[in-house]
Amino acid sequence: MYIEKSRVEWIKNLLPDTFLLRVYSPLIASKIKPGQFCNIKVSESDFPLLRRPFSICEVDGEFLHFMFDVHGEGTKILSNKQKDDVIDILGPLGNGFNYSGDYSTAIIAAGGIGIAPFPYLIQKLADDKKVISFFGGRSKNNVIEYGMKNLLISTDDGSIGFKGNVVQLIESQYSQFRNESVRIFACGPNPMLKALQEFSIKNNIECQISTESAMACGFGICQGCPIDNADGDGYYLICKDGPVFDAKMVRL
Amino acid sequence: MSYTDLSVNIGKLHLKNPVLLASGTVGYGNEISKFTDLSKIGGIVTKSLSLKPRKGNPPQRIVETPSGMLNAIGLANVGVEAFIKEKIPFLKELNTTIICNIAASSIEEYVECTKILNPVDTINAFEINVSCPNVKEGGLIFGNDLNSVGRITEMVRSATNKPLIIKLSPNVSRISEFARIVKEEGGDAVSAINTLVGTSFDIWTRKPKIKNVTGGLSGPAIKPVALAKVLEIKRNVDIPIIGIGGIMNWMDTVEFMIAGATAVQLGTVNFINPNAGVEIVEGLHSYCEKQSIQKLSDLIGSFQL
Ligand SMILES: Cc1cc2nc3c(=O)[nH]c(=O)nc-3n(C[C@H](O)[C@H](O)[C@H](O)COP(=O)(O)OP(=O)(O)OC[C@H]3O[C@@H](n4cnc5c(N)ncnc54)[C@H](O)[C@@H]3O)c2cc1C
Ligand SMILES: Cc1cc2nc3c(=O)[nH]c(=O)nc-3n(C[C@H](O)[C@H](O)[C@H](O)COP(=O)(O)O)c2cc1C
Ligand code: FES
């Protein structure tokens, strides 16, 4: 794990409030795996005080890419960074996706900005794995396709693609891959992850979900980021034991 | 560069420098050691231990506030037994002072924890947390009550000869009276301060942002309060003080020492810069050099009113 002062190479809009940030961060780039995250200090002052966690979106040689939505003050400050600004990045953190092993089809399930970790995962998946990606957004104005492969889209208002949510879309397509050995990789809002957890357990499909919570440290010293284990008799720490969990391990 | 003597004494506890990492903000040392060299700082205070493991409070446990954060972790910890078995072997190799913090829900539990931990050589001192704002039993009920703090100090004192530090709550009107009773009952030092009770609401849902409703405020936001508490103790009671609250850098550390602190603890800053302790030690060296201070301890309580 490193604390790396990283130079901004560029930042660009994917949507009006969604950004892609490229930074020069050779140490972290050499180590980070899909599904891991970094904790970024967006300003040098005490405002905001805490770092902000972001999934690794892509690695390009010695450069890291992060994809983020402007949410509150911290992400707003980050969106205003310019070429050659220096930001303080701590990482790599967390466990990442387990994408090796014996399965033929990787199903990517992304809800909104939950798409962020998947370009890197898709980059890293072995060539012999078939990839089908699903993206769910509110309307056609919220669709992100960056870095996806074989993409199917759902929107809540039906303005593009399937009308409904992304889990309903996956269910509607399930007959296609019912007889294949499948692993689902999912990231998005909690209700989506919960629906997918039920779907995967019901159909006995391997499913890995990337979870979120408020964080202070990001590496296991503050105990600020608990998530219930499946039995409900203890907690995992999302930053250290996660953020990726087998859907059977946690109670959402 | 000629190196100043940064060492300080908290009663019979000798520290190579005054920079300690605060309980609940370093776990049991292993995670943070990946970012910093713990042998370069004065020591670490381990996460509050109770007799049995505690699961802690349900999420959401933390929220950021202006220049600070609220937490209601609820003393999640591994318990005394697992601490000795699983955490001590790592702590033993650290080559830094280990202060073991205990939080309990009854006086008997404080004493029992101390008795079990006392024979462990790796533990150099005890810090007794009578001031956690986030648990139903114990915690602030003790921390707000002079008699309880006196009684806990007396009982724990009789269970150990190791240096005994009592960590005081700022959520009282006269903190110096608590320091006085600690001294009278044989405590070697006081730590001040633990977190201040605070809360925060989401204006759209009208719900508290942390599940426990209230939490403990820490970070730069509390520094002026912490400094005033240290000063109050310094001016009223002759007991070593470990200053805590919102320290971010060496300048804050110097400020606490001028106000009367013999040593300091870093809390929230560890989450942002886990190497802050080492950077502060370096900063203290260059401050002393610039100010021609030979012994950093000369700074303690050197305020000019
Ligand atoms: C492991 C992980 C990976 C993430 N990856 C991405 C990503 O790739 N792209 C992206 O756009 N966003 C990602 N997020 C969410 C991102 O961290 C938040 O959007 C960001 O912290 C908002 O900061 P802000 O100051 O703009 O918002 P504000 O709302 O002003 O402040 C956010 C504050 O709320 C806290 N908070 C409360 N609930 C949550 C929660 N569920 N998640 C995060 N913070 C919370 C934060 O700790 C922080 O202190 C990720 C979160 C986690 C935990
Ligand atoms: C997340 C968190 C957990 C804490 N846990 C404990 C604890 O277990 N025991 C304790 O005595 N103090 C605990 N504290 C209080 C700190 O040790 C310290 O007194 C307080 O945070 C003020 O210092 P700071 O402003 O530098 O953070 C905790 C603080 C935070 C932020
Ligand atoms: S964010 Fe600090 S322990 Fe997970």
Annotated CATH architecture of chain B: Alpha-Beta Barrel
Q: Sheet with the most strands of chain B?
A: 8 strands, parallel, barrel
Order of helices and strands of chain B: EEEEEEHEHEHHEHEEEHEHEHH
The count of strands of chain A amounts to 16
Architecture of the largest domain in chain A in CATH?
3-Layer(aba) Sandwich
Count of extended strands of chain B: 14
Assembly type: heterodimer
Write the CATH homologous superfamily of the largest domain in chain A. Answer: Nucleotide-binding domain of ferredoxin-NADP reductase (FNR) module
What value does the Rg of chain A take, in angstroms?
18 Å
Q: What's the CATH H-level superfamily name of chain B?
A: Aldolase class I
Brief synopsis:
With 252 residues, chain A is of the alpha/beta class.
Question: What attributes characterize this protein structure?
Answer:
heterodimer; A: about 250 residues; alpha/beta; Elongation Factor Tu (Ef-tu), domain 3; Rossmann fold; 2 domains; 7-stranded mixed beta sheet; 5 helices; B: about 300 residues; TIM Barrel; 8-stranded parallel barrel; 4-stranded antiparallel beta sheet; binds flavin-adenine dinucleotide; binds flavin mononucleotide; binds FE2/S2 (inorganic) cluster
